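Protein details
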Amino acid sequence: MNPSLQLRYTHADHTRVLRDVRREQMPEVKWAHVYYVGFRILADSDERYHHALILADDYGTFLDGVAGEFNAIRGQSTAISFNDISLVFVRNLMACDPEMVASANAQNITLGIRDDLSRCDDNEYLVFGMVGESRICLIQANACDALTAIHRARSKSIEQFKDEFMPLEVCQAHPVTAECYALFDTAAERIKSLIDGVSTGSGYLH
């Protein structure tokens, strides 16, 4: 963790180890497979955050990775129950891809996220992701955690676009989200230096 960051909340960085749950095991790592996840842990009247990296190549394996991290957190202390653990932040490394960034900016998605996060509503989540293989969109969801927000975004995508939705970023309208972004940036720079960062060139819709 970057010691220069001024953090209000307590964060534990477990991103030095990649939890690889991909169906297709391969030596190379693609940007689209790397998920930075943040969990809120409530125990003994204390609130802290746990950050980890998951390698997943589809939605099912992403859920497997999240479940594995839940179990790892639960294993750290018998005082922590599953109800004390909530996924509150998700960011895929593709969110850093220049083409993806340009498309999000062109659709005012980045500005929309920034504006909504400033409202500070613990039950408001923003879910940014891919619909099919070329469209990107931002979906707002009222939810108790990021997993519920993703589920609602996927249902809305099927209803509105008749296509599958793959989350690339999920964030909560809460002050801790700014710290999660800063910690993600630090981890992402380290990861990008270790893997092939060639843009997919998949033609995101503007």
Observations:
- The radius of gyration is 16 Å.
- Helices lie at 59-76, 98-106, 109-117, 146-161, 176-192.
- DSSP finds five helices and seven strands in the chain.
- Confidence is low (pLDDT under 50) at residues 197-206.
